[in-house]
Design brief:
This protein is mainly α. The chain contains 13 helices and 7 strands. Helix content is 46%, strand content 7%. It has a 3-stranded antiparallel β-sheet, with no helix packed on it. Strands 1-2 form a two-stranded antiparallel ribbon. Helix 5 runs antiparallel to helix 7 and helix 5 crosses helix 9.
Length: 348
């Protein structure tokens, strides 16, 4: 976390300078695994700056109450506006345009269930090592920091539940419903049979690998983390997103960020008619209204269903041309996958 260490040892002036530096600081991010060592400078986003400021302000406020400093300089910092960007769906038309131009329609994009299924199938067929991790994010909507910090003592595969500590949301303006960590930052999430199966297989594989490496006298790092590297050490947190980008490119799918996979999970739960309050609790949002405001208009199928329901409640003597269900799959899903792989869109 970006914060001022040992606040009590600094004067108010030095604390103010440190806060200013924290607000202006930039992070280094790797552009991709295909070019090891290639890094680019990226400034912090407004949402992350707000969270950094909240943490620093809390620390300085505590120091002020204890009379360690004369006042809290963070109270007078002018913060940048953090616009909330709504997710945009990779429809068939947008995928076709992307294939021609290579441009993303919006900063925050989400896959249809069909495209997400194609990604998970690719990971499974390629025996991708971190397939269980990405499956969790895509189906349960975990944040990067949450899945990165997940530990086995907090996973109960018998009751199919796991406990999560609120994680960093990577400065995403869409998902900024995050407060400072507290006891309420812990939440319990239920797991489905497929995620339990994948985690059991992952745990058994790790146990075999540990025995093999110990027998070979290789250096092994003991860790309680669920997801580790080949030597048992915790994954580098940026690697999870970097590797995801590489996999998406190898699969030939329209690009989204790792955090967008969380948005996919949210929209899929809503498409499956999961209660919005349950969706909010699963995602770890502190406000139910936030979930409703951000996600209810994300997927076109949701808007279409609302329109059909509105017409259906109007009493009419005769409804000409009434048809049954349009099908279980969302419109445009199959066409999107076909377009991704360079095939013509099949008529619906």
């Amino acid at each position: 976390m970006h914060s001022c260490p040992r606040i009590s040892q600094y004067s108010a002036a030095r604390a103010r300078a440190r806060c200013s530096n924290a607000r202006k600081q930039a992070t280094w991010v790797r552009k991709g695994e295909e070019a090891p060592g290639l890094w680019q400078r990226r400034r912090l986003g407004p949402a992350r700056i707000h969270r950094i400021h909240a943490t620093i302000s809390s620390a300085l406020g505590s120091a002020h109450k204890r009379k360690m400093i004369g006042h809290n300089p963070a109270e007078h910092v002018e913060l940048p506006k953090a616009p909330r960007r709504r997710p945009v769906v990779w429809t068939a038309a947008r995928v076709e345009a992307w294939r021609k131009t290579g441009k993303r329609p919006a900063p925050v994009m989400v896959w249809t269930p069909q495209i997400c299924g194609a990604f998970l199938d690719f990971c499974e067929e390629e025996e991708e090592r971190l397939y269980p991790l990405y499956h969790l994010v895509a189906t349960r909507g975990f944040r990067r920091g949450e899945v990165w910090g997940l530990e086995w003592p907090n996973v109960d595969l018998e009751t199919k539940t796991l406990a999560l500590l609120l994680g960093d949301d990577d400065g995403d303006e869409v998902d900024d419903d995050v407060s400072l960590k507290s006891e309420s930052s812990w939440r319990t999430v239920s797991l489905d049979d497929e995620n339990v199966r994948l985690l059991k297989a992952w745990k058994a594989w790790k146990a075999r690998q540990t025995r093999e490496r110990l027998a070979a006298r290789e250096k092994w790092v003991e860790s309680s983390r669920v997801f580790t590297d080949e030597l048992g050490a915790p994954l580098r947190i940026d690697y999870i997103g970097d590797h995801f980008d590489v996999l998406v490119g190898q699969a030939g799918l329209p690009p989204i960020r790792l955090h967008d996979l969380r948005h996919c999970a949210a929209t899929f739960m809503l498409l499956a008619k999961v209660d919005k309050k349950v969706v909010s609790e699963t995602l770890g949002h502190s406000q139910y209204a936030f979930t409703q405001d951000v996600y209810t208009s994300v997927v076109p199928e949701l808007a279409e269903a609302a329109a059909e329901a509105t017409v259906a409640i109007i009493p009419r003597k005769r409804r000409g041309g009434a048809s049954g269900k349009t099908g279980d799959r969302p419109a445009g899903g199959g066409e999107v996958v076909a377009l991704v792989h360079g095939e013509g869109a099949s008529p619906s």
